[in-house]
Amino acid sequence: MTAVLEGKNLVRDYHIGGGLFGRSKIVHAVKGVSFSVEKGKTLAVVGESGCGKSTLARMITMIDAPTSGELLIDGERVDIAHRGLSKAMRRKVQIVFQNPYGSLNPRQKIGDVLAEPLLLNTDLSASERRDRAMQMLKKVGLGSEHFNRYPHMFSGGQRQRIAIARALMVNPSLLVLDEPVSALDLSVQAQILNLLADLQDEFGLTYVFISHDLSVVRYIADDVMVMYFGEVVEYGPREQVFSVPQHSYTRTLFAATPKSDVDSIRARLAKRAGLALA
Prior knowledge:
The chain is of the alpha/beta class and 278 residues long. It has 10 helices and 10 strands.
């Protein structure tokens, strides 16, 4: 299989000023991370807040340049620090954020939200942009009646569908999904995850899925990469990582994750009721 995305020993440092009398210091946010994601597959990046996964996402989406190391997309080396980015390269990678409402302009109608990437990145006419936006609305489970509505008129799950539709408007090969379901109710989470799986199959999309929710990761990932203080401490196929975790930090993460089966939920409720009566 062809690797859509490759990271080779990626490093990202931040220089923080020390104020009037203090010394500046360097924060090592990402320390020598390497990975590869094949076409049509999903790599889940897992870890607690501050582990470096969001910094890694900023490098993959070409917002920040690596301090050192190589990032390759479709086999082409990305070097935004020295060469900049072509429109074609920018179209290849899109991102879906955690908060769908915060990522949508509240003053824009949904049709304009979807058509804007086409206006900036293609030479399509206004009628062609409208047709593409209408088609994409249907792909994500919404209808033509939603085209002229504003973001505040939608539920959280619907807004995330709109955010996904916007990311797909320019036919990217890679989607970075930054905690895309963590702000949603459980039932809505399942709907969005099923939608992402269907879209991946239909369009041959490659995903980098950033999350701290291991139950979600187990559902959607092909490979799992566990990060801890900027380093990769475990990396491998999903079932291997979940069934036989090798690193102590991975085992700690799994132990801290509540089990979601019915018997486990009943046991937690019974224990809670017992504590309340004590």
